[in-house]
Write a structure and sequence with these properties.
Elements lengths: L10 H7 L5 H10 L8 E8 L2 E8 L7 E5 L13 H11 L2 E5 L11 H20 L6 E6 L1 H16 L6 E5 L5 H4 L14 H12 L25 E7 L5 H13 L4 E6 L6 H4 L4 H17 L5
Parallel strand pairs: 3-4, 3-5, 5-6, 6-7, 7-8
Antiparallel strand pairs: 1-2, 2-4
Length: 303
């Protein structure tokens, strides 16, 4: 990726986001990072068994809808706290209750650890919905990057298992397909923030071996699923110069071909995850406004 293709307002925050650090340091840093505050949203912690959750409950009027949110981190690191700005903004603007799930990381905890953890978060949310004032028929599942990939896989598993179903999937720059990581030709491309070498590390740890093999376990790689019929409507946002652009576009096309309503929001010249690490920039704020408008519509009461 050439720097002169990046939107000018993203250049400075992109340089900060590109700093590399050991995995253990990133894991420690996000657990203690400073987060924004809001007088309009009550933030609490909870547990679904051993799974740590972070809940966002609007103070005052609530819409009766909910969002299960899953943070990113390449399947290797991250924490619910890193998405505090996005979760606070969404809870404030839409009046939705949000449950954000922390999950175990590869390579120490390969598939299905993270997948099972976010599924536990979903079931906790469903069980607590009445107490939280949330309509079981108005809960979406969303996430960013690896979290968006986990969200897409969770939606697939919930569809197959029956029971309470999410009404929408809200996906930002989803990490969906291990076959991208298997492409060595992409290693030479300078994808800012998340490149294919990092991508291979994440998928290899998660799948306990080289990515791209013929038979990954069910729900491990959402883009490998061949039957996408019956899944809830989807919103996919990504930058056109990021590593995941091709796989995100392919998944959106596959959903659409299966009859799933799909909205894609492709930001020209934007690298991976800019809506998070550059959330104060106009381009990120504009994307979030569009995304929240879509989510609000998807969560409206059914008549």
């Amino acid at each position: 990726m050439e720097l002169d293709r990046v939107l000018p307002e993203l250049r400075e925050p992109m340089q900060r986001a590109q700093v590399k650090a050991p995995r253990w340091l990133v894991r420690a840093a996000v657990r203690v990072m400073r987060v924004p505050r809001s007088e309009r949203v009550r933030v609490r912690t909870a547990k679904a068994g051993a799974v740590r959750l972070r809940t966002y409950v609007p103070v005052g009027v609530r819409s009766g809808a909910g969002l299960l949110w899953i943070h990113g981190g390449g399947l290797l690191f991250g924490d619910a706290r890193q998405d505090e700005a996005l979760c606070l903004s969404t809870a404030e603007r839409l009046g939705v209750v949000i449950v954000s799930v922390n999950y175990r990381f590869a390579p120490e905890h390969p598939f299905p650890a993270a997948h099972d953890d976010v599924r536990a978060g979903w079931h906790w949310f469903v069980e607590q919905a009445a107490r939280l004032g949330v309509d079981l028929g108005r809960i979406a599942v969303g996430g960013e990057s690896a979290g968006a990939g986990l969200a897409a896989a969770l939606v697939q598993r919930l569809h197959d298992g029956g029971g309470v179903q999410p009404v929408a999937q809200w996906l930002f720059a989803p990490m969906l397909d291990d076959r991208t990581a298997a492409r060595r030709d992409l290693d030479a491309v300078e994808h800012f923030v998340w490149d294919n070498r990092s991508n291979r590390e994440g998928w290899s740890g998660y799948l306990r071996g080289e990515p791209g093999r013929a038979d990954p376990p069910p729900y491990a790689v959402p883009a490998r699923r061949t039957d996408l019929r019956g899944l809830p409507s989807a919103y996919l946002a990504y930058g056109d110069i990021e590593l995941f652009a091709a796989e995100d576009r392919a998944y959106a096309d596959a959903l659409e071909a299966a009859g799933v309503p799909v909205t894609t929001d492709v930001v020209a010249g934007a690298p991976h995850g800019f809506e998070n690490w550059a959330h104060r920039t106009p381009v990120a704020q504009s994307l979030l406004t569009r995304a929240q408008a879509w989510l609000a519509s998807a969560l409206e009461p059914r008549r």
